[in-house]
Amino acid sequence: MREDTFKRKLVDQAQIKPGDRVLDLGCGTATLTLLIKQRHPQTEVFGLDGDQHVLDLAWVKAAEHQLSITLDQGLASALPYPDDSFNLVLSSLLFHHLTRENKERALSEAFRVLRPGGELHIADWGKAHSGVMRMAFLLVQLLDGFETTTDNVNGLLPSLIKGGGFSQVRQTIHYSTVFGTLSLYKAQKATNGRLNML
Ligand SMILES: C[S@@+](CC[C@H](N)C(=O)[O-])C[C@H]1O[C@@H](n2cnc3c(N)ncnc32)[C@H](O)[C@@H]1O
Fold this sequence. Notes:
With 198 residues, the chain is α/β, with parallel strands linked by helices. The chain has a single domain (3-90, 106-120, 145-188), classed as Rossmann fold, CATH 3.40.50.150. 39% of the residues lie in helices and 27% in strands. The chain has seven helices and seven strands, in the order H-E-H-E-H-E-E-H-E-H-H-H-E-E. It has helices spanning 3-14, 31-39, 52-65, 100-113, 131-144, 146-153, 157-163; strands at 21-25, 44-49, 70-73, 86-92, 114-125, 167-177, 180-188. The chain has a seven-stranded mixed beta sheet with strand order 3-2-1-4-5-7-6, with helices on both faces. It is globular and about 45 Å long. The N and C termini lie far apart (38 Å). 40% of the residues are buried. It binds S-adenosylmethionine (SAM).
């Protein structure tokens, strides 16, 4: 999976600064959330997930590492935070679990809770960059379902991110893994806060 490599790269590319408020969307057991807090102790880090059971495991991990993070239960499609709450939203391996409609809602919500000038950084399955990678991804599709994964492997995440209002959307790097192509994306909420519709 090269999980450690791509999560570290995601944190690197986010260029987190002291004082930033950072949200890890679909945090699971908080591997990325805790990595952010470990590497950037002067930040306020939130992890959100829909599943209370994984959040309970995340609490235990946070306590073991003696790291102070906030964990919230909620849906990416209806975030329990006010507008302009975060400098950065990061997300790892969430979007291939969401239907097209929920991907769109989650991206609109990420846009809403980001401050103007804030950035979105996503790591997830991306456009297969070879026939072998396309074949490898069939296993993920069989396990996680074709409905939620097809937009990923067809390379539609960047256009969906733009549709959520973001500008400067780009794929920064991709990795070959045993399960297919894993891509990192970066996007910004423009400082004037206007939707990127033009
Ligand atoms: C594959 S795990 C990734 C966990 C973590 N981000 C990581 O990279 O280790 C996907 C996570 O997304 C969560 N999830 C799925 N759909 C969600 C939704 N609509 N809102 C919030 N969390 C969701 C699941 O509960 C699960 O913990």
